[in-house]
Structures are given as structure tokens and as C-alpha cells.
Design brief:
This protein has 398 residues and is an alpha/beta fold. It has two domains: 249 residues, Thiolase/Chalcone synthase (Peroxisomal Thiolase, Chain A, domain 1); 139 residues, Thiolase/Chalcone synthase (Peroxisomal Thiolase, Chain A, domain 1), CATH 3.40.47.10. 33% of the residues lie in helices and 20% in strands. It is built from 13 helices and 15 strands. Strands 1, 2, 5, 6, 7, 8, 9, 10, 11, 14 and 15 form an eleven-stranded mixed β-sheet that branches. Strands 3-4 form a two-stranded antiparallel ribbon. It has a two-stranded antiparallel ribbon with strand order 12-13. β14 and β15 form a beta hairpin. α4 packs antiparallel against α5. The longest helix has 17 residues. It is globular and about 65 Å long. The two termini are 18 Å apart.
Length: 398
């Protein structure tokens, strides 16, 4: 039998605030973190809203002066890692760092540091460039900073990709653990808001509103008109199930099947889930108001029909709360699904059924308020802007 892995710690920083309780409260109450962007000037643009991280103070979570000049994306990842480690009941100053791994998924990372580094180099020459800008501008900077901060000396990897990169990081981490002597692995996703990134997506017509109407994320909506950009980080602690049970750790969920093409190939979506019965299920969708909504809906129709007619899973979406946080977004999806299983509460769907496109109807149950319900399994799906997809299944019953 394949070795089983479980989630034992969760930590995040996002538009709803710092920590899992603020995140959960925002989900339960459908409280959006969208506000007018203050990080950069949005004058002259159609899009002004963003899922900025509010009132963030790394020192309040992890007071280590070595990282005071780090980019925000690294600071978000550091804070999330500290919160996840504490939540798992672990002590990084006592563990054997050679048996701890780290996998971080990123999409854009610290574009602002790259821009500042390049500007100084071109305008004033190499002597004017701050070395700290370069060290934190590289894509593996968040993983590097976390490994230094928490004495992680095992396998350390950075997964670079689109929105599904968080799910890809989970799949990669479990493969690494199966083929190594690692006791546990920190797995995360991190993203930082930047004017160049935002402007790029706006120019491609991907940001809401791309039609001049109301700004916001409307998953599967007939009036969907793009996404609202967000930022933040989410880190999970992954352990071998046997070891976690031996140390009496709190277990959120067990990691099940993983597939990097299931969402773009509806038949594979069904194949991944074919051995799951008709127990109560929850599906966290990655729909963000773009063309990927159609692809994901096609996969969900295969699940809810064609041999699965009796299954009507709860359908949820966190994007109207957090914004599109790319690699961090799919990791936040995983965290929310794990908390749904562990707490036995299904948050509101955050999908407006009265504005639902007709081709997305019949996918499952859309609840307008929180529902107490024991969830046996959860599926997390994500579609990237290049139509790449990933699916992860979590199981409960611990």
C-alpha cells in the first residue's frame, strides 16, 4: 500500500488578515478582502480593487531582524510558515533539520525587486545596485528565506507555475517524501501584488472589469468579467500519517489522489474520483471569472453526471474573498478544504446562483450560508490562465 500523508498544520497571510482564524471567519461570513489598491497608483485604469494583505507586521508573528529587508512575498511566506509550524505543535529549534523538507509554489514573486534592481543598474551602474534587491528578486527567495529561518536542511524546491502551482507543490512534496527519509515537509504558495503584473493582466483584458461593468470576481457567472488580483501566502505542514498519529497530532485531512491534467481533461477528472463513493463531498473550485470557468465546469459536469448522478457535492469558491492569488490561491483552496473536513462546517459557496450562467447549473449544491455537515472528502481544482489544470483530493474520517 502507498504510504499515507496528512495535513497537520495550517498558516496563512491573505486579504482577510493574518492566521487561519481570520481566514476562516472571512469564509464563513463571505467577507471580501477587496479594497481600493494602495500599493500602487491605479489612476487611469478600469480596475481599482485588489486583495491586499492588510496591516501586516512580520515582527508580530516572527520577530527575526535578519529578514527586515526581505521582499513582502518572502515575509508573507515566513509568517505563514511560523503559523503552520506552531499550529502543528512542532519546534524548529528541536527538530532534525535534515529530515525536514520544503516546497514552495510561486508565480510572479518579487517583481518589484527585479524592477528596482534593473532600474538602478541601467540608470546608475552596478555600484548603485543594492545586493539585497537581487537576492530577494529570484524566484526561490521565499523558499531560501524560510529554510534559513527554520533550520530546514532536507530537500528544498521551488515550483514555478500558474494558478495550479500550489496543488503541484503538494503533489511534488508527497513524491519527494516517498523517496526520501524526510519526516515532514512544509508546503506553501506565495504571491506579492505588483503594478507591472497588474497592468499586464489588465492589458490582456483579464482583470475585472473587462467590460466596463461592476468590478469583482463572479465565479461561473453570466456577467463574469475577469478577476481581482490578490496576494499573500499559505503554508501547510505535511507529515507521514503513522508518525502524526503516534505523536497525537491534530490531523486536518489525509492527502489522496493528485493529477496535473484532470481539470483540462474531464474524463481524467472522473477517473481520479472514480473510487470515491457517494459520501458527502465538497469541491473547492478555482473559477475566477475568466475562460477557465468553462473548462472547470465541463470537468464538474462529468463528475456530477455520467455514472455519478446521485452525487450532489457542495460547490465552493474562495476567490471572491481572497482575490486571485495565483500559486498562493490554490494553496489557500487546499487549506480551506482541509478546514471544512476537520471542522465539519461548509462555508457559503460565494457563487451567486441567481447570476449563474445556464451551462454551469446542476453542478452541485450552492449554499448561501454556512452549513454544519460532516464532509467525507474534498476535491480542489484549479485552472491556470494558460488552461493548465490540477486536481487534489483530500479525505476525512480521522
Amino acid at each position: 500500500m502507498a504510504e499515507e500523508f496528512v495535513i497537520t498544520g495550517i498558516g496563512m497571510v491573505c486579504a482577510s488578515g493574518t492566521g487561519k482564524e481570520m481566514f476562516w471567519d472571512a469564509l464563513i461570513n463571505s467577507r471580501t478582502g477587496f479594497k481600493n489598491i494602495t500599493r500602487f497608483d491605479t489612476g487611469g485604469r478600469k480596475s481599482h480593487l485588489g486583495g491586499e494583505v492588510p496591516d501586516f507586521d512580520l515582527d508580530a508573528v516572527f520577530p527575526d531582524r535578519r529578514f527586515r529587508r526581505a521582499a513582502d512575498v518572502s515575509k508573507y511566506c515566513l509568517a505563514s510558515s511560523k503559523l503552520a509550524i506552531d499550529d502543528a505543535g512542532l519546534d524548529p529549534y528541536r527538530w532534525d533539520g535534515s529530515k525536514v523538507g520544503l516546497v514552495v509554489g510561486v508565480t510572479h514573486c518579487a517583481i518589484n525587486y527585479s524592477r528596482e534592481f534593473h532600474t538602478a543598474m541601467v540608470r546608475e551602474g552596478p555600484a548603485a545596485v543594492s545586493p539585497s534587491l537581487f537576492s530577494d528578486s529570484v524566484l526561490n527567495a521565499p523558499a531560501g528565506n524560510v529554510s534559513i529561518a527554520f533550520n530546514i536542511k532536507g530537500a528544498i524546491h521551488t515550483i514555478v507555475g500558474g494558478t495550479p502551482a500550489g496543488i503541484d507543490a503538494i503533489g511534488f512534496a508527497t513524491r519527494v517524501m516517498r523517496n526520501s527519509n524526510l519526516d515532514l515537509c512544509l508546503v506553501g504558495g506565495a504571491e506579492e501584488m505588483d503594478s507591472v503584473v497588474s497592468d499586464g493582466y489588465a492589458r490582456f483584458g483579464l482583470l475585472s472589469p473587462n467590460d466596463g461593468q461592476h468590478e469583482g470576481i463572479k465565479p461561473f457567472g453570466i456577467r463574469r468579467n475577469g478577476f481581482v488580483i490578490g496576494e499573500g501566502a499559505c503554508v501547510l505542514v505535511i507529515e507521514r500519517k503513522k508518525a502524526a498519529m503516534e505523536r497525537k497530532a491534530k490531523i486536518y485531512a489525509e492527502i489522496g489522489m493528485f493529477d496535473t491534467a484532470a481539470c483540462v481533461t474531464p474524463g481524467r477528472f472522473r477517473d481520479v474520483l472514480k473510487d470515491i463513493g457517494d459520501e458527502t463531498a465538497y469541491i473547492s473550485t478555482g473559477a475566477n471569472g475568466t475562460a477557465g470557468d468553462d473548462i472547470e465546469a465541463g470537468a464538474l459536469h462529468v463528475l456530477c453526471g455520467s455514472g455519478h448522478g446521485s452525487r450532489k457535492p457542495f460547490i465552493g469558491n474562495i476567490k471572491p474573498v481572497t482575490g486571485e492569488c495565483f500559486a498562493a490561491g490554490s494553496m489557500l483552496q487546499i487549506a480551506s478544504a482541509a478546514m471544512v473536513i476537520q471542522r465539519g462546517i461548509v462555508p457559503p459557496s460565494n457563487i451567486q446562483t441567481e447570476g449563474l450562467d445556464s451551462k454551469f447549473r446542476g453542478l452541485g449544491r450552492f449554499n448561501v450560508s454556512a452549513v454544519e455537515m460532516k464532509i467525507s472528502w474534498a476535491a480542489i481544482s484549479s485552472i491556470g490562465l494558460k488552461e493548465e489544470g490540477a486536481l487534489l483530493v483530500l479525505r476525512g474520517g480521522h
